[in-house]
Amino acid sequence: MGELKDWMPLVIFDLACVFLYSGIIFGWAPLHQMLVKEGFYAELCEGEEVPCAAMENKLNSAFTLASSAVSVIALPAGWFVDTFGPMAGIMIAGVLQVISLTGIGLVQQLGDVAGFDLFAASLVSMSMAGAITMFCGYTVPFLFPKQATLLIAATSCLFDGSC
Q1: Structural domain span for residue 108
Q2: Which residues cross the membrane (predicted)?
Q3: Position 128 in a domain
Q4: Cβ contacts of residue 33 below 8 Å, gap of 6+?
């Protein structure tokens, strides 16, 4: 494959993607605080102080769905990356990430449309994109057998740091 220094932009991009996008859903505690502060699901607190039990339940349900989606998507996502390669995987993950972040951005304006919970769907999409990004991130170290252990460890640490 060549020397690692010749492919350093690829390695940096790979590690940056893992750090920025793969484990967002697992950083739930600070994300939860931001969502409460921004008033997500505050409309459920009719006449009550924010945050109320209904708001907390809805936020926790969205997190439960999203964190469960990571486990559900793991096998199909791994198969997809193995079959079609990391390029196709990262493109799918990128599209899912853009859709999910756009959805979260529009939640305050749109709210629940016809009973559809856009926030929960966006969070699920984000967690699926993160899982695919992580799987794609683990393919790059195998291009550099001499540094594979170091790159796998770096990928694992950056996934943990992305939470």
Answers
A1: 7-158
A2: 7-29, 62-81, 88-107, 119-144
A3: yes
A4: none
Does residue 89 belong to any structural domain of this protein? yes
| Burial class (CB within 10 angstroms; exposed 0-12, middle 13-18, buried 19+) of 56 | middle
Helix (H, G, I), strand (E, B) or coil at 113: strand
Condensed to tens digits (0 to 9), the pLDDT of residues 105-133 reads 888 787 666 678 899 999 999 999 999 99
Residue 65 and residue 119: Cα distance in Å, rounded? Answer: 11
Domain count, the chain: 1
CA dist., res. 4 & res. 145, Å (int): 10
In a domain, 2, yes or no: no
Question: Tens digits of per-residue pLDDT, 1-20?
Answer: 556 677 888 888 888 888 88
| C-beta separation of 119 from 66 below 8 A | no
